[in-house]
Amino acid sequence: xxxxxxxxxxxxxxxxxxxxxxxxxxxxxxxxxxxxxxxxxxxxxxxxxxxxxxxxxxxxxxxxxxxxxxxxxxxxxxxxxxxxxxxxxxxxxxxxxxxxxxxxxxxxxxxxxxxxxxxxxxxxxxxxxxxxxxxxxxxxxxxxxxxxxxxxxxxxxxxxxxxxxxxxxxxxxxxxxxxxxxxxxxxxxxxxxxxxxxxxxxxxxxxxxxxxxxxxxxxxxxxxxxxxxxxxxxxxxxxxxxxxxxxxxxxxxxxxxxxxxxxxxxxxxxxxxxxxxxxxxxxxxxxxxxxxxx
Length: 294
What we know:
Shape: elongated
Strand content: 15-25%
Helix content: 25-40%
Strand order of the largest sheet: 1-5-2-3-4
């Protein structure tokens, strides 16, 4: 914890922790650690209070980092590539009339998404569709630990079980608690009609656009004779391929040889899908791989 962060406390499940930013009772102060009786837990305000989907319901109110981006000004895939290069943490919001999409970004990777009707990859596709239809896009930066906590918020809540290393969101009718490694880092006066938890994954997994929007990524490809030579270290084709595509290209080519689709490779290796598309197109153009029929 940095010197500028608000101190955090552990609490047992079901405790009456305050949600109004007031000091905890003396009985909960870590006096044996020299604690201050006026230590408080920060309370976050909801950016989208009253919305139905779980993910946007718990997104905290923060100033926009990018605001009003449009398709005519910035290609969404290029913008996502920029966020990936930055290793950015935060969330995206696009709205057109009564349609809205929300996407959480962790380490520059899209890891959670929601609309009124869908979550996950389908909701990510709806964000792209709204943006292409003219919806302005806003991006809001978050601290990395909050982005991690929110990465577990999906379409279903689980029974809450506070463990020493629990990271995730605990939601109740009277508010939500943000936990990181068993410690409370923030609260929010926004909850659900029932009690439930959204555990965060140890490492959030990258969302891939659905087949209808990124069919190429779900297709099967195979190596040509030239492609097999590119993996053979004693050939001149290998030397040429390595100098052009480097270790990343060789790793991708080996995955194709192992019958992985680009989408499967992207998920297993944490490589951004939009970085694989131009590489795959070059593999096809130069006759290193070919698309399998059917």
